[in-house]
């Protein structure tokens, strides 16, 4: 048994003082007791919140962050020119490189308060499209990185077969991503075997997008158990292509043709009509938002008031990893609404008047649902994932409870995360991951070669 004693802890029914959190040997919380003495428990003298799930990652893109900003000679840079840069970049990445980059990403996520990562894995093969001897080699490298760093991981092997809606031929840059259904089934089998022995990992599936699979393929992969994630409505061009090919917008098409329910997470949902927002909210599916990446790529702004007004569920992901902190995603999410609507506190309401706290609560619940794991709450039966904010840090000093979460989300640049715990194991203490230096040294070696 492991125990933590938090001076403040965010519990499902609100903040409590002097909270003793006890976990069994599997790292599952068995008891939460407010107003308790610390005894021999590990002390968390600041504000403890549930670890935050990061529900959308393409780990290799961490190595491209900051390296894809230069204006291209033709100008008119966009998501689509960025995508060409990404296609060139993957031709240099070996499995060892991918593992080193993923480990660095995990460390950064853990140090900023993400304790679980959902990896949307589509880089399956060698640059010319030849599968590795083990078809799941690249997928398994994410699990190896998670073994080393301790982060929780939902692995979503992605089915990618085509280059446009529906069934257009892929272009040569997409060769490393492609599988037919048989090849994909082999990847899924290997991954299922690998997660079976890893209590912090689980498996789902990710039909990449309506550009990459046919309706029949989508129906087929939806039969796999676990979470189902798909990119949808990130770009206006994608919406226009879908409309031209099917007569429906991407989310509209999914609402009519896919069995959307609480297992599903639609990534981005940037360009939705009100009727799509309301329809999606009714299905119980989650909208997986990646605000810093969506801003970086010039995607557009998600309509948060309409979706939440309809009862929609949201979660956050760091996607291309230009940001790796929950604080940055939540800040970008709220402030982009403010810029569009010329108003403030748009994520808050009468019941939940602090937008930082309201957003955090929303993405903890949505993140647990979208990752298919019992995380995101300090409560019995949940995995013991805790993040302690140092409330003596100048960014947070003088604030308490929900007001402190506002200060965390909306002010300062420094990182006040002092402790991160996954499955009752302290991985980050005094702001540093236990293996930060060795993992960063390996990453530096890899990135110098990749960018040379
Ligand atoms: Zn993505």
Keywords:
single chain; TIM Barrel; alpha/beta; eight-stranded mixed β-sheet; 2 domains; Urease, subunit C, domain 1; binds zinc ion; five-stranded parallel β-sheet; 452 residues; 14 helices; 37% helix; 17 strands
Structure description:
This protein is of the alpha/beta class. The chain folds into 2 domains: 2-49 and 381-451, Urease, subunit C, domain 1 (Roll), CATH 2.30.40.10; 50-371, TIM Barrel (Alpha-Beta Barrel), CATH 3.20.20.140. 37% of the residues lie in helices and 21% in strands. It is built from 14 helices and 17 strands. The strands form 3 sheets. It has an 8-stranded mixed beta sheet with strand order 3-2-1-4-14-15-16-17, covered by helices on one side. Strands 5, 6, 7, 8 and 9 form a 5-stranded parallel beta sheet that branches. Strands 10-11-12-13 form a 4-stranded parallel beta sheet. Helix 3 (137-149) links the parallel strand 6 and strand 7 (152-159). The mean pLDDT is 96. It binds zinc ion (ZN).
């Amino acid at each position: 048994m492991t125990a933590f004693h938090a001076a403040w802890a965010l519990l499902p029914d609100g903040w409590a003082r002097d909270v003793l959190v006890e976990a069994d040997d599997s790292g599952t919380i068995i008891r939460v007791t407010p107003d308790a003495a610390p005894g021999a428990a590990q002390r968390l003298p600041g504000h403890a919140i549930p670890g935050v799930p990061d529900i959308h990652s393409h780990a290799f893109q961490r190595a491209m962050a900051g390296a894809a900003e230069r204006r291209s000679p033709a100008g008119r840079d966009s998501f689509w020119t960025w995508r060409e840069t990404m296609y060139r970049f993957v031709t240099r990445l070996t499995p060892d490189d991918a593992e080193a980059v993923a480990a660095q990403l995990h460390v950064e996520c853990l140090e900023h308060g993400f304790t679980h990562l959902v990896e949307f894995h589509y880089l399956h093969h060698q640059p010319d499209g030849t599968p590795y001897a083990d078809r799941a080699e690249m997928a398994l490298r994410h699990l190896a990185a998670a073994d080393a760093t301790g982060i929780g991981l939902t692995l979503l092997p992605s089915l990618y077969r085509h280059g446009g809606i529906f069934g257009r031929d892929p272009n040569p840059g997409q060769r490393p991503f492609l599988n037919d259904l048989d090849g994909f089934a082999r990847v899924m089998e290997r991954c299922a075997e690998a997660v079976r022995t890893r209590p912090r990992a689980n498996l789902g599936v990710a039909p990449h997008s309506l550009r990459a699979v046919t309706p029949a393929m989508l129906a087929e992969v939806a039969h796999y158990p676990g979470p189902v994630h798909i990119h949808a409505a990130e770009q206006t061009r994608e919406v226009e292509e879908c409309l031209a090919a099917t007569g429906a917008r991407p989310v509209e098409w999914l609402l009519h043709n896919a069995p959307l329910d609480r297992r599903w997470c639609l990534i981005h949902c940037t360009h939705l009509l009100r009727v799509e927002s309301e329809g999606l909210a009714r299905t119980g599916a989650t909208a997986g938002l990646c605000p810093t990446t969506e801003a970086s790529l010039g995607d557009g702004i998600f309509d948060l008031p309409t979706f939440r007004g309809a009862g929609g569920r949201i979660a956050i992901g760091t996607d291309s990893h230009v940001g790796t902190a929950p604080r940055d995603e939540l800040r970008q999410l709220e402030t982009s609404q403010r810029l569009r609507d010329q108003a403030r506190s748009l994520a808050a309401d009468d019941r939940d008047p602090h937008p930082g706290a309201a957003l955090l609560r929303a993405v903890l619940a949505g993140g647990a649902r979208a990752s298919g794991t019992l995380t995101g709450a300090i409560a019995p039966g949940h995995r013991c994932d805790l993040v302690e904010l140092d409330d003596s840090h100048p960014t947070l000093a003088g604030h308490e409870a929900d007001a402190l979460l506002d200060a965390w989300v909306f002010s300062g640049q420094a990182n006040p995360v002092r402790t991160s715990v996954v499955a009752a194991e302290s991985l980050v203490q005094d702001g540093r991951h236990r293996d930060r230096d060795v993992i960063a040294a390996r990453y530096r070696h890899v990135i110098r070669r990749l960018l040379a």
